Amino acid sequence: MKQFIYADNAATTQLSKAALDAMMPWMLSEYGNASQPYSFARKPKKALMDARAAIADCINAQPDEIFFTSGGTESDNWVIKGSAFSDAQKRATITSAFEHHAILHSCYAIERLGYPVAYLMPTEAGLITTKKLQTIISDTTRLVSIMYANNEIGSIQPIKELCEVAHSHGALFHTDAVQAVGHVKIDVQELGVDMLSASAHKFNGPKGIGFLYIRKGTTISPYSDGGAQEMSHRAGTENITAIVGMAAALIENCNAMEEHIDKAHRLEKCLLDGLCAAHVTFSRNGGDNILPGLLSLSFPGADGEAILHRMDLSGICISTGSACNSESTEISHVLRAIRLEESLAKGTIRIALGKNNSEDDVDRIVQALVRIAG
Amino acid sequence: MTSEQKKCFVCGKEPLTKDEIGIVRKLIDKKTTQFYCLACLAEYFEVSEEELLAKIEEFKNEGCTLFK
Asked: Which of A7, A22, A51, B26 is 20 to 30 A from A275 via CA?
């Protein structure tokens, strides 16, 4: 029987046992609405408060700076639209051309309403530089939104420095840290960001839950109107089960972060060494500072989508940066933004190793890649 | 050579179906001139024919025109 290997941890991750255990009581017996004043709501109310405090602690924020959302996409939508709609004078937004579609499509939406948006191009190594931001930012800029780490190539951005540029022009700074939270150390005080998006299923929590960090004193329009939940900024009965699971998963990952990073680097090295030893021609994208475990690899002349499906037939889940659209191949906006040569872009795959992967998994991935792309 | 005239270069089966031609193009090379029948492709990839048929169904449901 074929052994199943999951190596697409940048797409989603397996729910941790700790998160599942934490969630179980809230699914059946403790179903009270945390907004109600009776004693049956006391436990969910406390669970909500504890989860908020625990999550805040993981990123060095205050509990009342954490707003629960349905995930990264909602957090990103809220930031882009809520920020634009909250200031009639400063209307401009700056982002990058290789953000996640949750940011890009939100930006297209406010553009259609007449709000100006500028898209910074990354370097070929996948970096947004402060120099580029300096050339475009002005005192009419309301918001700068740059992702913490790119989801396809893993390049980690100089967030602290970019944030300083934004602040020096009186603009707010947001980072979509969906790929990074729970995997690398995030300290919102050290970074200086005003807002930060996160999604639980990327760090072994449940799907359908995430949070937006909003620094105290930041003005942003509410995401949804209705009840007074989330300090009247995001109406709707709280999903206590998912929130509790998210907090448990984040605590678990943050407590073992160094160990996970070391393991990811070790596995990455095994994989790259294995391909080199087999004389496979490939290049790695994303520059020098990349999310641990994320490998964007380009095989010249190969077809990334064909590699993905043949890996799948070998029981291995990976991702690709290009997709077949009938006779032609569609290259992702990220690979286009870093101006990757077409023959490399078409042959690009993403392997995202996680805490549950082993050296045996990597050996099998290498064997399969040598057979398919070698 | 039309799709009806293509044959499996391993066992010589001909003509190959649109699905057999499409899956080879999808998984090996869109511009390939060397085709396999389903049985020989399954043997080459060391998978079952059922697994390839499941893939073909997915590709067709996604609207991939290589199977038309």
From this structure: B26
